[in-house]
Specification:
69% helix, mainly alpha, elongated
Length: 209
Amino acid sequence: MSSLKTEPDQATASRRSKITPEREQELFTAVLDTLRESGYESLTMEGVASRSRCGKSTLYRQWGSKPELVVAALHGTRRGLLSRIDTGTLTEDLREAARAIGAGSGRDTPLMLALSHAALQSPELLCALRESLILPELAAIDAMVARGVERGEVAADNPATEFVATQLVGVMRARPLLECAYADESFLVRFVEGAVFPALGLDAQAPGS
């Protein structure tokens, strides 16, 4: 059997990083900050290199192209904050989720808006955007609702359970367009208490809520 590497194998090996995890996070931060400020079309490897005081050749050697670098930055900066929330009650889980989403809205909303148009033209970028920013949030909120159903806080056949995640994530993206303001912590807590709780049959003022 031949031990010769194929060209793709050689290319992958030649691009193995000697960048430290800390330095990699600095580069990813530079990528995402540039996206928020200027949009995807204005992002360049040269600009990232200058902003992060990194050699352009290092970026190309490690990631090869702008789309690959953006995909890596999205995957490499997952926070997974919502998946850690489990207070024991659905009302408090949803309040905590609202606070967590709202706390990050100033970072995440501009990023989503910057990438949305470009993602429609790039299946790879769209996939990374969904996997890194959207699907983890949806799955975490769905899990909260499922626990609430298991505890008997919400009826299993309540049709509103299907739409809780969509409501929370969607209003975060929509508010800047509708009201020229981010969906911050205060707004999202009021939203879940005024719109989501009633639909689920939850009492925001109940003991322990």
